[in-house]
Write a structure and sequence with these properties.
Layout: H1 2-14, E1 23-27, E2 34-37, H2 45-64, H3 74-81, E3 98-99, E4 104-105, H4 112-117, H5 122-137, H6 152-157, H7 170-179, H8 190-197
Antiparallel strand pairs: 1-2, 3-4
Helix pairs in contact: 5-7
GO molecular function, one term: transmembrane receptor protein tyrosine kinase activity
Organism: Leptidea sinapis
Domain Protein kinase: 1-205
Length: 234
């Protein structure tokens, strides 16, 4: 109930923006609680990325088998992706949000200061955005797939980071690592990120390859403890 009301309040505060899923109406006075959101006809970004991954694998099988036929619709699919602007939403997806004693948290997208001290800021959002860039560069890879929820925080505190995607450019991965700096104050701002990503004629991800299957470690996505100050770990 409280989480639902917070989501409604956040969407009302944001208002209308072409890059944010719009709240059309809501019912909060009686059960069932309902939020009517803008329809996203192409679904979520993760589904699109993994669909593209599968399409690339199909094309590679055809090439290796010397199979020819009618042209693939991959180009049409990628072109269609640019027909509408991407939009933000905040779904509580299974396997993404970890339930703590006080609230669900997207552990694998959290900056260290958010995990250990419950400090959220634009700098922690920058960290999360770089994880999103990593997901895009891997066509929907699962962050830290080899680590359990319990092992992830100590991995980060010892300097561990997501590896460079095989087909990501060095320039793009350099930007990611800058966003994953231990010191929140030295991470780039979103304005600086936009400047770096809008440099023309830059190839950031080479899609002309076969991406390995997505590996998701659901063996230990167990609930985790929070400290008395609300942080995920102490």
């Amino acid at each position: 109930m409280d989480d639902f009301l917070r989501e409604i309040a956040m969407l009302k505060h944001v208002g209308q923006h072409k890059h944010v899923i719009r709240l059309i109406a809501c019912c909060t006075r009686s059960a069932p609680l309902i939020a009517l959101l803008e329809h996203a006809p192409r679904g979520d970004l993760l589904t699109l990325l993994r669909a593209a991954r599968g399409k690339r694998q199909d094309l590679n099988i055809k090439a290796e088998s010397n199979v020819t036929g009618r042209p693939s619709e991959a180009d049409t699919e990628y072109t269609n992706l640019s027909d509408s602007d991407p939009q933000l939403d905040d779904p509580k997806l299974s396997g993404i949000y970890v339930h703590t004693r006080s609230r669900p948290v997207p552990l694998r997208w959290l900056a260290p200061e958010a995990i250990f001290a419950s400090q959220y800021s634009s700098a922690s959002d920058v960290w999360a955005f770089a994880v999103l860039l990593w997901e895009i560069a891997t066509l929907g890879g699962f962050p830290y797939s080899e680590l359990s929820n319990q092992d992830l925080p100590p991995f980060l505190t010892t300097g561990g980071r997501l590896p460079k995607p095989a087909r990501a450019s060095p320039r793009l991965y350099q930007l990611m690592t800058e966003c994953w700096s231990d010191e929140a104050t030295v991470r780039p701002t979103f304005a600086q990120i936009v400047d770096k990503l809008t440099i023309q004629n830059q190839l950031y991800v080479d899609l002309d390859c076969v991406f390995p299957p997505v590996e998701e470690n659901f063996a230990d996505l167990s609930d985790i403890d929070v400290s008395t100050d609300g942080s995920v770990f102490k």
